[in-house]
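I would like you to sit down with the record closing this message with an eye to the fold:
=====
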Amino acid sequence: MKQRYHVFILGLLLVFASVSAYAQRTISGTVSDTQGTPMPGVNVIVKGTSSGTTTDSNGRYTLDVGDGTVLVFSFIGYMTQEVEVGARTTVDVTLSEDIRQLSEVIVTALGIEREVKALNYSVSEVKGDEFVQARENNLAAQLSGRVAGVNVSKASSGPAGSTRVVIRGNKTLSGGNPLYVIDGIPMDNTNFGQAGLWGGRDEGDGLTSINPDDIESITVLKGASAAALYGGRAGFGVINITTKKGAARRGLGIEFNSNYVFETVNDLRDLQHEFGAGNFVGETPSKPTTLQQAFSWGSSHWGPRLDGSNVLQFDGVARPYSYVGDNWDKFFETGHAWTNSLALTGGGENQTFRFSVSDLRSTSVLPNSGFDRTNATLSTNARFADKLTLDAKIMYSHEFAHNRPVLSDSPGNAVQSMWIIPNNVDVDIYRGDPNKLGAIPEGISDELLTIYGQGGDARLPGQEWLPAANNWGQNPWWATYQFIDDDTRDRIISSGSLRYDITDFLWISGRIGLDWYTRRSTSLTPEGTGYQLGGARSEAEDRTRETNMEWMLGFDKEFGKISVNAFVGGNRMRRTWERISADGSGFNVQFFPAINNTSSRNFGYGFDEMGINSLFGSAEIGYNGVLFITATGREDWFSVLNPEYNHYFYPSVGASFVFSDAFSTLPTWLSFGKVRVSWAQVATANLGPYNANLTYSLSGAPHLGRSMATFSQAQGNNGTIPNPLLQPAVSTETEIGLDLRFLNNRIGVDFTYYFQKTTKDILAVTISRASGFGATYVNVGEMENKGIELLLTGTPVQGPLTWDVSLNLAKNNNKVTYLADGIDEVVGEEPRTRNVFIKHIVGYPYGMITGRVQQRDPNGNPIFFEDGRPVATSEYVPIGNGIADWTGGFNNSFTWKGFNLSFLIDFKIGGDIFSGTNNRLIQNGLHKKSLLGREGEAPLHVTGVVNTGTAESPVYTPIDRDLTPREARDYWGSVGGEATAISDMFIYDASFSKLRQVVLGYTLPRTLLSKTPFQKVTVSFVARNLAIISKNIENVDPESMYSTNAGAQGLEYFAMPSTRSYGFNLNLGL
C-alpha cells in the first residue's frame, strides 16, 4: 500500500509540473568573448527565476521571455552580465574574462550546489559529453584515467559486466563500493553474481541501467569531508550523477544521437606453434596413434614437432599434423553496438521539461552473447509565484542480457577451451552436428562413443562432443549455443522534490526518491552436457525496493562582509529485498527442459529488510568571499545493528582561503589561489540485514516427516555466531589541498594530500567450538591510507586553434596495521590454480598475493629434485600486491573551426598480477617458455643443489645440467601444478599505459544549415581501448580479471580477451 502511495504522489507531481507554459516572446542572440569567438555552454538565465538555457556550439541561444525581462549571462572564469531585454528580439552579448573571481559552481552532497572556491575538500567533475561519444555500457568504466585518486577496474566479462571503483584506497577488509547518487537520491548498485574459485558469471551491476545520454555531469566526492553528509553509506566515497533538465526555449527542442561501433578481440597471445597434440611415451614425445590416445591427449601439447604427417584426432579422422592457423579468428566474432537516443526539451519562463528515449542493441565478440537496453526518462521543473519550485523525474530502464560469458574454471567457459586447443586441431571440427552445434554428430563409430564414455555408458549422438578426456572440459560451441543463461531487469528510479522560499534567505524543501527493480534470471544446462548428462535448469526472481524520504530547512544570507549558508535536515531510508527461486536436475522426459520435468527439485525463498534513519546539518560562514569555514554533522541509526550500538555521529570541519582575492599585491600572472584543509569522520556498518542477530531457518533434513528449525548461522558447528555488541567501523581523514591558476586561468595546479585511518573494522575471529559455533564478528581491524593527488591543466594554444590538456596523478599507500590479538593475516580469495591466495597481512598493504616459492639452502642456492624439478616451499609468502601504486590519465583536446580531436591515455604504475592463464599454458605446453628443453630447441638448464639427505638432516649436492625433453616436460608441469607450484614464476608487473579513447569530430557550420531545420549537425569517429602502449605481462591484458570482488584484485584466469571498439557518432539538433 505504501509503495502505491509513493507512486501516486510522484505521478501527481509530474502531472502538476507539466502544465502548459503560457505564451512567451522569443528572443535569440550570440554570446562571444572579447576576441569575437562564439562561446558555447554559456548560462543564459531569466533573472529571479530558474528558467533559462545554454548557448550551443556556435554560441547561439534562443529563449522565450516575458515583458520587462532581465537576462543573466554567466560562464566560468568570465564576468557575469545582466542585460535588460526591452523590446528587442535579438540580444548579442560579449563576455570579458574575470581573472580575480572564480564563480564555478559544482554539485556536492545532497544535491546542494556550492561555489568551488568555498569547498574545503577535493572534488572532480566529468561532463556528460565525455560519456556519449566513445561509449561504455557501464558508466563507471569511463571514469578510468579521468579523476585523480579513483582506481577503476572492469571485469573481463563482456559488454554488460560490472566495474569496481576504489576511491583513495581500500578502507575496510571487506572492501566496499562508493555510494552512487542520482540527482540527490541514492541508487542501488548491487552485483548479483561474480566468478569465484570454481568459476561463475559476472551478472553486472546497477550502473548498466543508466542511459549515458541523460547525464549532465558526474561529480566524484573523494574525501570523508566531501561525503560526510551522506553518513554511513558514503564510507567509501560518493559518485554523484546529475542528469539533464529541460530549458526554456521557443518551440520544441529535438536532439537525436546515433552511435554505431564495432568491437573486435584485442589478441595479445604469443604462443608456440612448433609442437602439437601428444604426450611422452617413455622418453619420447609421441603423436596419438590410437583412438584412445587421440581423445585422452586432446588438451596436451607435449607431442613432437609438427611435421605434416597424418595423425588421428579425437573424431577418429586422420589429418595433417600441421598448424591449422588462428582458431580465435574462426570462433570469436565482431561485436556490434548500436545506440539511438532522442530527447525532447521545451518550456517557458516558469516551467520546463525534458523527455528522452534510448535504445541499445549490442552483440558480444563471444558467439551467441549480447546485451540490450531500453530507457525512457521524463523530467520536469516548475516555479509558482516565485516561491514554490517543483522538480520531478522518472526514469525507466529495461535490460536483457543473453548468455553472459562464463569465467574462470566454470565448465561453461568457452574461452578456456579456446586457449588450450591444440595447434593441429581446427576448432570448426568441434562444431559437430550442424543442427546442434557442439553435439556429437551422427555417424560416429561405436568404438569412439564408448571411448567418449570414459569408463561409463557410451555417449550418444546429440550429446556434448568433448574434445578431450575431461567431463569438466567444454566444447566451446556447445558452451555458447546450447547453454542458456538469460536475465532481464526492469527498473524505475524516480524522484520528486518541492522547495518553498519562505523569505529571500530562508527556505524549506522535501524530497522523495524511489529505486525499484525486478530481476529475472533463467539458466539451462542442456541434456547431454559432459559433466551433467541429465541436464539442469534454474529460475529466480529478485525484487529490490529502496525508498528515501528527505526534508531540509535552509538559511542563506549575507551580513555585510559575512555570509552564512546553513541547513538542517533528515532522511528516512528503507530497503527490502525478496527472492523466489527454483531449480531442478535430471530431466525425466527428453527435450522438455522444464523444472517440473526434473527428478530432483529445490525451491527457495529469501527476504530481508533494512533501514537507516538520519539527521544532518551544515553551516558555512564566509568572510568577504575569501575565507570560508564549514562544519557538518550527521547522525545515523542503523537497523542492522543492536539498538544499543546502532547509531553514530559523523562530524566534519574545514576551511578554504582564497588568498588571490584577499591580497591585491599578488602578481598579475596568478589568476587564482586557494588553500584548503578539512577533517572528517565517517563510519560504515558494512553488514547485511540480520548478520548481528541470531536467526532461524527450516532444516533441509526433516524429522518424522516434519520440518525442523535450526540456527541459520550454525552450519554444523562451523558457522558464525552473531555479536550483538558490533559497532560501525570508523574512518577518520585529514585532507590538505592547494589550488592555483595562472595566466588568466590558462594553467592550473590542484594538489591534495590526505591521511585516512580506519578503526573498529569488522573481522571474523575464531572462538571455541564448545559455543556451538566456530567464529564471531568483532570490531578490531585497523587500516590506514595516505596519499597524494595532482591535477595539472593547461591551454597551451588559444585562438582559432585551441589545445586543452590535463594530466592527473595519484599515489596511495595502504597498510593493514592491526587485525586482532593472535591474528596476523586473513584470507581473501584464491584462483582455480589453487597455488596462490589473496591475504590481508599486518604490516603489508591490503590484498597481498601470497604463494609458494622455490626452496633455498642456507647459502641461497635454489633446491631441486634429482630430476631437475624445483622444490617448493610449504608455506605461502607475500609475492606481490594486486593494487597499483600510481594511477593517472593524460587528456588532450584540440578544436579548430568545426573540427575537434580529443584523446585520453590512462595508465597504472606498479601493482602485480598473478596470471593463471600463463600458469596453465606452461602446464599444457603452449606457452613459448615451454619450448625450453624440447627437442631441437634451446636447453632448459638448472643450477642449484639437490637435497640428498633428509628433511631433518639435509645434505646439499650441486646440480648443474641440461634437462632431457621428458624432464623439461615434468619441470614445466611441476612449476604450474597445484601442490608443486612455484607461484612467483607467474607474478607479473601489472603496470600499463593505454590509448583509452579517441574522438575526431566535425560540426557543420551554421551557414550550411541555414536552409535546413537543423541547428547542429556533428559527425564523429569514436574509439575506445584502441591500443595498449606498454605492458609487462605475456599473452594477456594487464587489466584482465575475472571478478571485481575486493579480495580478488590481482587474480587472472582464462577471462574474456580484452576488446577494442571503433565506429561513428551522429548528433543532430533541431
Summary: The mean pLDDT is 89. The chain has eleven helices and 57 strands.
